[in-house]
Amino acid sequence: GEKVEQHESTLSVREGDSAVINCTYTDTASSYFPWYKQEAGKSLHFVIDIRSNVDRKQSQRLIVLLDKKAKRFSLHITATQPEDSAIYFCAASPLSGSFNKLTFGAGTRLAVCP
Amino acid sequence: EAGVTQSPRYAVLQEGQAVSFWCDPISGHDTLYWYQQPRDQGPQLLVYFRDEAVIDNSQLPSDRFSAVRPKGTNSTLKIQSAKQGDTATYLCASSRTGVEQYFGPGTRLTVL
């Protein structure tokens, strides 16, 4: 089955700098790659996703890059703010019909320091 | 739009006891997922439904775990004879398109 590895377990950046979180996956059939944010004591909240028909997607300060050849995708958070501090999870799924069987990485704890 | 709701929020059991978790998905969402999230790990899919039908329950850890969604709306996940290794947060998620999943607050289970 699919395996998703999240390379950074912790990441610390200064406010205003960019943060980059990298993930790799194993299943070439994976075609959907969402990112979720989990703040302390709360559940997962969807932040952005990318599908395999594009290699870049941006939503405000969030950019997702996808390299299908390397089976690698990354989340870039620009101009970081203290409220970006959270655990970020990447996931991968081989979209099949209307079902979405997500495999998650282990999470990256991002700290944005003032 | 109300989000996914789950109850209870916390449960503490002795080994061997049974426990049930309840999930109410977002209205109109036909697909419902149950995940297990051990401490400091990512969520791991246990089972998912389309309406009342189980689509895939192959990731349920053992026959001690069962899940139902009898009317295609609310769902119950049950653990018979809990073990310490079951300690985790149990998350419910729902989706309408099958793509973007919306997660509930979770039930944090501790088995002593």
Number of helical stretches of at least 4 residues of chain B: 0
**Number of DSSP E strands of chain B:** 11
Mean pLDDT of chain B: 93
Coarse shape of chain B: globular
Number of strands of chain A: 11
* Uncertain parts of chain A: none
Structural class of chain A: mainly beta
**Helical percent range of chain B?**
under 10%
Tell me the Rg of chain A in angstroms.
Answer: 14 Å
Would you kindly provide a written description of the structure presented here, covering whatever features stand out?
The complex is a heterodimer of chains A (114) and B (112). Chain A is mostly beta strands. Chain A has strands spanning 4-6, 10-14, 19-25, 32-38, 44-51, 56-59, 62-67, 72-77, 86-92, 103-104, 108-113. Chain B has 112 residues and is mostly beta strands. Chain B is globular and about 40 Å long. The interface between A and B is medium-sized, with 25 and 25 residues.
Brief sketch in words of this structure:
The complex is a heterodimer of chains A (114) and B (112). With 114 residues, chain A is mostly beta strands.
Key terms:
heterodimer, A: 114 residues, mainly beta, six-stranded mixed sheet, five-stranded antiparallel sheet, 11 strands, 0% helix, globular, B: 112 residues, four-stranded antiparallel sheet
Strand and helix map with partners:
The complex is a heterodimer of chains A (114) and B (112).
Chain A: E1 4-6, E2 10-14, E3 19-25, E4 32-38, E5 44-51, E6 56-59, E7 62-67, E8 72-77, E9 86-92, E10 103-104, E11 108-113
Chain B: E1 5-7, E2 10-13, E3 19-24, E4 31-37, E5 44-50, E6 53-56, E7 65-68, E8 75-79, E9 88-95, E10 102-103, E11 107-111
Parallel strand pairs in B: 2-11
Antiparallel strand pairs in B: 1-3, 3-8, 4-5, 4-9, 5-6, 7-8, 9-10, 9-11
